[in-house]
Design goal:
Length: 483
Amino acid sequence: MDPTANTLRIPPEMLLYAEKHEIFDLMQSMLRNLIVDKPEDPIQYLITLLKRDSIGVPRIMLLGPPASGKRTTARQLCERTRAVHITEPGVLEGEGELAREAKWHADRLQEIPCELWVKLIQQRLSKLDCIRQGWVLEGIPHSRQEALLLQELGISPHHVVMLEAPDEILIRRRQCRRVSVCSEDGSEESQYDEKRVLSDDNTATRLLKYHQEVSALQRTFQNCLKIIKADQSHEDVFAQALSYIQRRPRPPAPYTPRVLLFGPPGSGKRLQAELISQKYNLVNICCGELLKAVSADKTSMGELIKPYLASGEQVPNDLVLQILTQRLSRMDCAARGWVLRGFPRNIEQAEMLKESNFIPNRVFFLEMPDDAVKEVVTLRAVDHVTGERYHSLFKPPPGPEVQARLCQNPRDSQARLLNRLSCYSVQVPALKAMYPDAVHVNADQDPRAIFETLESRLVERLPKCYSVLPSTQEPGSGEKAGE
């Protein structure tokens, strides 16, 4: 099909369905599993994979030095995500020849061979509970070599959380750790755990070994790593870790931003739309400018709306929607995404846009006090010779000659501005209710700061919110907290 000969329109339902059901993520995950496992029967393998419902489950590695709070944070994450908590003792509790060989080394205080240890981890993660619920590996892997061997076996995390704290704080935590024991009369008293204190003699050695590996581990997982300071409350550490794992990594799948910009007159919608469009190559659409362009064409639709524009009357909603949906259906909008302003102006138009299946995935409300709006709008003017815009306070004209040429747009008069502000304030509560996930941005600040806020919310994927579910007790999740 030649797009230069006929207008190519992409049904909006295609992208909506793909995004709603995360089709691109699904295809990427299935392809990755096929390449790693190389099954003899790919079709049956994919059927089994889909039946397990293991697409999108959490796969988290929680790393950190001794006494950094890994155990507590891992338990909290598992409680929130319903993932399986995997610890080193839990892996060793497995059955089979591999587990017996590993225990033989552990009983003799020998280091378990890396290849054997990695196979044990793979054996544990291949069980049905980890496949269906996901997993949190606490303190695993220990080294870059382990991490690379795990990757060769197809075990790669979606998120890696690394806790860090000064050594003196970690050593103090080990020394001051207490356990509650029952005395003979049944009361509880706090005593030093003598066995733990004796074992703390090798804390410095363990810290040294960790520091020797931590830089290599950071390089290995640099694309999915979050470092969190552990010398703060457990609640703060958990909140930061949970916020990070809810931010899903961006796949190399197609992503087309569909952005709506709302705001009162003078809030900077035009400028922000231009900045977003230029940086991310989105199609910049202003509904008012689009109607003027159509009316200038020698088409039936242009002739139909021309009388409304000439008289200053509002173009009927059905005609506006027809023109707008035709523009949004073109190939450039479907492939690159779009940023729209000037429509919808009320809840009726918003409902019509939704019914047409042109649903935005990012909505921003630029908010500014009325006094600031009046200062911005009523003091601006245009040089009718150059077309340059000036403002009495923020961008004064360069000289008296230009000052004499300045003309104010009749729409910027105080009387008409007050009327426009009144109409906007009446409609905006219903529009905010229509888009409850919209981002509200203070527009009474430097335009670069506004753009940075918009940009940060534009490029990030929408977070995956985990509901609080009862945790499932798995092997390896019952050890005492402390690591």
